[in-house]
Specification:
Alpha-Beta Plaits; four-stranded antiparallel beta sheet; 4 strands; 33% helix; 5 helices; alpha+beta; globular
Amino acid sequence: MNLKSGYPVKQFDQPVKRYCQTLELKYDPALIEEYKYWHRPENRWPEIPQGIREVGILDMEIYLLGSLLFMIVETPLDFEWDSAFAKLAVLNRQAEWEEFMAKFQLTKPGASSAEKWVLMERIFSL
């Protein structure tokens, strides 16, 4: 894959807003490769993307640089972050997924997705 080729951007039939988050993985190349393995389409737990869509998220992407993750979340304009992530936390297999992912992440034990991923401030827009 040539990173300089870029990534296609999805188009939506409605106005959207974007959230950006970051999280750090444990710096262990084997763990990072395993983390990537579990995020490939063929290895994902089907309940996880289903739940993400169920709470109103239109698209989600995760990028990796070394052990630093960057997530882009796109939602409808009326999306309410706190209520959506409170709902997501109790959906089928979500807590199990968060516990499973914790072994890869530099986070507190038992943290929810909303507690692990830190929202980022946009400091530039063209």
